[in-house]
Amino acid sequence: MLLESIRTRPCPACFVCGSGGDTIYRDLDDVLFGAPGSWSVSRCRNARCGLLWLDPQPVEEDLGRAYANYYTHTSQGGGSSLPRRAFRQVKAAVLRARLGYQGAAPGFAWRLTAPLGHLYPGGAEALAATAMFVRAPGRESSLLDVGCGAGDFMAAMRGLGWQVTGVETDPRAVERARGRGLDARHTGLEQAGFDDASFDTVTMAHVIEHVHDPARLLAECRRILKPGGTLVILTPNSASWDHRHFGRDWRGLEPPRHIRIHNRSNLRRMLDTAGLEAVRVATLAINANAVWTRSAEIRRARSAGAAHVAASRMPLGGVASQLAERMRLRIDPDAGEDLLAIATRAA
Fold this sequence. Notes:
Low-confidence stretches: none
Order of helices and strands: EEEEEHHHEHEHEEHEHEHEHHE
Number of helices: 10
CATH class of the domain at 1-70 and 206-347: Alpha Beta
Largest sheet: 7 strands, mixed
CATH architecture of the domain at 1-70 and 206-347: 3-Layer(aba) Sandwich
Structural class: alpha/beta
Strand content: 15-25%
């Protein structure tokens, strides 16, 4: 499919602290999904910030062209094989043990099953991430998923007792979510028109790196959260171990769809600026398998001059990298591929 070019505008200064930036990568092509253009990435000169960003950046009106061949939030099949059933039992036990979802694993066997979560390549953190680290709800607790896609996460949280709503800009994904009986709205968050203090919890998984104005997005999250409500964010970590290893071929760069890429320091600062109190800001290895695998394929494709990356098969090297990254996190808290932020709106 021949795509139109994407117009750009310069972005010489850091969005978070206002410092200038130095170009660290030039001439990056999109071998993942074939978006047009050649892209450069800058790093903030302020060592206490370290934000990465595209310079120049796509103009907001043209950004949709970067998603023309992008995967459209397809639903993931559950399956009923014995390993899948065993995995679901372990996951349910971890959700009860760590987050209080008693209905997920009734009875007493969960006490024996939950420790098995540490044997999973991503560890128990990867299983808790399937609920976005959100604790079990009280009566009639409401959750908004920003960038809800086809609604897999919404459906799972509805099954765990939440009243769920989602917003999503991909119309095909919204249609799939609505087909599952979910309250998915075809809109961006700021255009959704939610009342002040509408939700107990807001979740954003791999959203903030895609938006032009994350500060405004965070401010809107605070506005619609109830006092004492919780915001949970997952996003790529620019300081990760795989980024240090793969450099320009790191999967987390994903030009031109990832406008900015954060680390623990600058994301915490953005939360503070938005009036949100950080409860936990950490890096995790929950997606290290996929990131290592895809980064290696990007490197091979670029070395061979290929236009596109072949489909990922998650080889054993990815699993080994994930296990190694989990161990490295014990001595290097910035090593994880995934950046997690949990924050609250003060009561």
